Amino acid sequence: MNIGTTGLWSPELRLHRDTAEIADAAAELDSHGWGALWIPGLGGGDILGDADRLLSATKNTTVATGVLSIWRHTAEEMAAGHARLRKEHGHRVLLGLGVSDAAAAQSAGGKYRPLAALNDYLDRLDEAPEPVPTDERLVAAMGPKLTELAARRSAGTHPFLVTPEFIAGARAILGDGPLLAPYLAVVVDDDPERARTTARGFVSFFIGMGHYAKSLMRQGFSEEDIANGGSDRLIDSVVAWGTVDTINERVQTYLDAGATHVALHAISPREGLPRTEWRQLAPLAR
Fold first, then answer.
1. Contact call for residues 136 and 82 (beta carbons, < 8 A)
2. Any residues with CB less than 8 A from the CB of 63 and at least 6 apart, and which?
3. Which pLDDT band holds residue 285 (cuts at 50, 70, 90)?
4. Helix H segments across the chain?
């Protein structure tokens, strides 16, 4: 599946109240030439229904779940839904899967054994009446074991809040072929203090979560970097901010490190769909 070099990652494409405006925005983004529109799993809900809305509004872009929790959606439900969307919209659906954290597993009545749980989930996708093809699913992998699994059993991996150095390490594990499509938060603002404040408005919640904090520690950040919404050093390392040209240079560092696609999350200081930022970033669609 070819999803181009860049895409847009957006919770607003699920959360915005006006579904007609979501469809209109998706059609505009499709015309810009983005390779994929990524929607996060959030707390569950009808993620395939939300994907269907985007697919119906677009002609070319892939719609990817980035990512749905295996604890909130059964493999059987996802396989059946994926098959239905593929029949209606062609091969434009990429199913991103994540193991989330121990709390999510416990709330679903399961044990948090990420590797075993994901292997089992992938087995069930393979055993479904209409299996999800390996090249139409990928894994949110933050550690080497899950990255190895992603290389063997999916199209690749979609890591969250990572540096180019992380990407280089992941590429070494994946080998040359698999998709490596990191999330990258972006703020179109060249004022350092204002841009960092805007970035923290979204990423600070995730920085404080246990599994992401551990990932950031493995990437070389300290407890002081993770505290209080993230140090300037951490924010500058995992968020691209500045002019569009500056952001483009940061995207290139991920591609040079081994990424095949970068999913850009335009963080805006305003509520609603960040259409102004999306239009500013349109030259980066490819």
1. yes
2. 36, 37, 39, 51, 54, 55, 92, 93, 94
3. very high
4. 12-15, 19-32, 47-57, 75-89, 102-107, 114-127, 144-153, 164-174, 192-207, 210-218, 223-226, 232-238, 244-257, 275-281
Domain annotation for the chain: domains and CATH numbers:
6-182+244-284 (3.20.20.30)
Q: How far is CA 132 from CA 13, 121, 155, in A?
A: 24, 11, 11
> Is residue 186 within 8 Å of 279, Cβ to Cβ?
no
Rounded CA-CA distance 36/183 in Å is 12
Amino acid (1-letter code) at residue 197: T
**pLDDT per residue as tens digits for the range 43-57:** 889 999 999 999 999
Ordered alpha helix ranges (H), 58-163: 75-89, 102-107, 114-127, 144-153
Q: What is the C-alpha to C-alpha distance for residues 114 and 213, in angstroms, rounded to an integer?
A: 17
Cα 135 from Cα 246, distance rounded (Å): 32
Give the bridge partners for 113, in sequence order.
Answer: none
Task: Give the pLDDT band (50/70/90) at residue 112.
Answer: confident
Structure tokens at 239: 């968020």
The string of pLDDT tens digits covering residues 167-195 is 999 999 999 999 999 999 999 999 999 99
175 three-state secondary structure:
coil
Give the residues across from 186 on adjacent strands. 240, 266
pLDDT at residue 106, rounded to an integer: 72
DSSP state of 161: S
Cα-based distances in Å from 41 to 46, 47, 95: 9, 7, 11
- Whether 26 and 37 have beta carbons less than 8 Å apart is answered as yes
